[in-house]
Amino acid sequence: MTGAGQSCDLLVIGGGPAGLAAAATAGRHGLRTIVLDERPTPGGQVYKQPGPGFRIREPARIGRDYLRGLALARQASESGADLRTGVEVVALDGTTAVVVAGGRSYPVRGERLLIAAGAHDRPVAFPGWTLPGVVTAGGAQALVKASRVVPGDRVAFAGSGPLALAFPAQLRHYGVNVVLVLESGPAPSPRMVLGLARAAAGNTELLRDAAGYRGQLARYRVPLRYRRIIVAAQGDGRVEEIVHAAVDPGWRVVPGSEQRLAVDTLCLGYGFVPADELLRLAGCAFGYDEDLGGAVVQRDDWCRTSVAGVLAAGDVAGVRGALSAADQGRLAALRAAADLGALPEGQAEQLARPVRARLAQKERFRAALAPMYAVGRGLYELTTAETVVCRCEEVSRAELDVAIASTRDMNVIKSYTRAGMGLCQGRNCRRQIAALVAASAGVPIADVPAATPRPPTRPVSLAALADDSIRDEGLFVRD
């Protein structure tokens, strides 16, 4: 189905756990559903599926995440949902999305719009972070899971959170030579472990996974060092050595604690940031919670945002993990079905009750984890004057400091320096610049207003947006 004038009951942006679970639920209750995803295959980041052209003969060997993503995609497809991959949403008008696919653009309208765009790796700027060989956990996952490519011969992992256990263990399981894991948070104390035990109900699988990952690292004799952070990456043309250091509880570097290690790959996993561009473009209200990724969209208990007809589910609304994301998607779909008259209100409430119970269990577990992985302000204090902060436009910390000395307005800083105007549209530098503004003003990052959102949210060719109805009457002459 292509072309203008397309419409559906529920339009879902994002084909990860939240979007696929929402589509399956909506389809079961008779809603016409379209799912739009920019990746070549559905599943999202955690449930990433191998790309087109790969034949999977033994699915169980790829892992549980692959199987879960495959099952969700199958459920969504069998429900009658129209799953569209390789498409990009570049603008919104109410509950209508402007989509670019195959070099052309067209609108798709939903009676209800669910934004389930997921999250991306939290960018961390430090000297050498732009060197080849420095990769994010998400980038390394794409290499390993989707393309079956080993990222390097001597790999160090620096980050924090459950991912700092899970991903290095997964890499090592795939045969990658992981030589060091750095965790910025503290080693689990007896009190922390007791808190996790009290939140174990409904979360035993997560606890088993964590214990299994820690056991894998120990079995492979991979050093795991707590309260340490990456300080610099160095090398001639690519990373050859890293510098790491001890940190205090605020993740600020302890002077004199620096150590060096020879590596050819540095993998960074300091958590995730909601991919909130479309929510901002829609005009949704936001709060702030650094441990959930920073700016977090405000929602009610049905995943409805402050904008009528617009819902948000999954990590785009605060990073809580794939299992929670899927249940949020189910909850949002039930709300959409009730709003559109496909499901009686009482039945929607009844179906939502066990979903909410599971979400509450996951939230208790997340709260128990919080003391171990609370993000420290020092994460944003690793740059020097020469460090490139906006890698797309090659804007250094020193250039930003000059602009910030005269204004705290993110829009003006963007205009002065071009930081945030490149291909990533600020995804890699926006938070770092906000932290610099906050430090200069002596206020929390939460108090720094974001730059005004503008379409297109993704780089797009003029040809894709061109109107075929406009004809050249000889006004344009080619030399």
- Let me know the average pLDDT: 90
CATH topology of the largest domain: FAD/NAD(P)-binding domain
Poorly predicted residue ranges: 1-5
Helix content: 25-40%
Our measurement of the CA-to-CA distance between the termini, rounded to an integer number of angstroms, reads 39 Å
Shape: globular
| Total number of strands | 21
| Quaternary organisation of the protein chains | single chain
What does this structure look like?
With 479 residues, the chain is of the alpha/beta class. The chain has three domains: 6-120 and 273-343, FAD/NAD(P)-binding domain (3-Layer(bba) Sandwich); 123-270, FAD/NAD(P)-binding domain (3-Layer(bba) Sandwich); 383-447, BFD-like [2Fe-2S]-binding domain (Arc Repressor Mutant, subunit A). The chain is 34% helix and 21% strand. The protein has 14 helices and 21 strands. It has helices at 17-28, 59-62, 64-78, 137-146, 163-173, 190-198, 204-219, 277-282, 322-339, 345-373, 397-404, 410-417, 430-441, 462-465; strands at 6-13, 33-37, 82-85, 88-93, 96-101, 104-115, 119-121, 134-136, 155-159, 178-183, 224-226, 228-234, 241-246, 259-262, 265-269, 272-274, 286-289, 294-297, 310-312, 388-390, 395-396. The strands form six sheets. Strands 1, 2, 3, 4, 5, 6 and 19 form a seven-stranded mixed sheet that branches. Helix 1 (17-28) runs parallel beside helix 3 (64-78), helix 1 packs parallel to helix 9 and helix 5 (163-173) crosses helix 7 (204-219). The longest helix is centred in the C-terminal third of the chain and has 29 residues, at 345-373. The protein is globular. The chain starts with 5 loop residues before the first strand and ends in a 14-residue tail after the last helix. The model is unreliable at 1-5 (pLDDT under 50).
